[in-house]
């Protein structure tokens, strides 16, 4: 036998307060997660530039093996096979160049552009000795993951 309670309400859905609490929690989580995501994207783009510098270093070593020096008779370095990183895709984050070359040494550099212009590592460099560098206040261990 059912008893009828005249003032009993059926609960349907959420109250405005509950909805606002959920939105606030999502906002806090997003505020924490988004900067972390952005740093991960910057780190991935930096890794692409480092990979490209390593590939260009191998190109320079092959050039040296074939010619006995890193520059031609006029003192000019060879034309690099590619000058932007990443090599694939439409969005390029770094300009690659031969910053300096002599008969016995070279320095390659990756200059940030587009979304990477404010990257804390700045311009990345790689020398024929394997020396890795950056021109910003960040440490080599952060920029090159040593």
TrEMBL record:
The chain crosses the membrane at residues 12-34. It holds the Pfam family ComP_DUS. The keyword Membrane applies. One of its GO terms (cellular component) is type II protein secretion system complex. Keywords: Membrane, Methylation, Transmembrane, Transmembrane helix. One of its GO terms (biological process) is type IV pilus assembly. PANTHER family: GENERAL SECRETION PATHWAY PROTEIN G, TYPE IV PILUS NON-CORE MINOR PILIN PILE. This is Type IV pilin.
């Amino acid at each position: 036998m059912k008893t009828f309670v005249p003032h009993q309400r059926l609960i349907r859905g959420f109250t405005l307060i509950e909805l606002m609490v959920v939105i606030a929690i999502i906002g806090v989580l997003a505020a924490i997660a988004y900067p972390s995501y952005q740093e991960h994207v910057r780190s991935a783009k930096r890794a692409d530039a480092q990979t490209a510098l390593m590939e260009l270093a191998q190109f320079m070593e092959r050039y040296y093996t074939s010619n006995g020096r890193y520059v031609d008779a006029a003192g000019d370095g060879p034309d690099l096979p590619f000058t932007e990183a990443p090599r694939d895709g439409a969005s390029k984050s770094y300009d690659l160049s031969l910053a300096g070359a002599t008969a016995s040494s070279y320095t390659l550099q990756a200059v940030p552009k587009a979304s990477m212009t404010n990257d804390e590592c700045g311009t990345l460099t790689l020398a024929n000795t394997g020396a890795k560098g950056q021109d910003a206040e960040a440490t080599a261990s952060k920029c090159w993951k040593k």
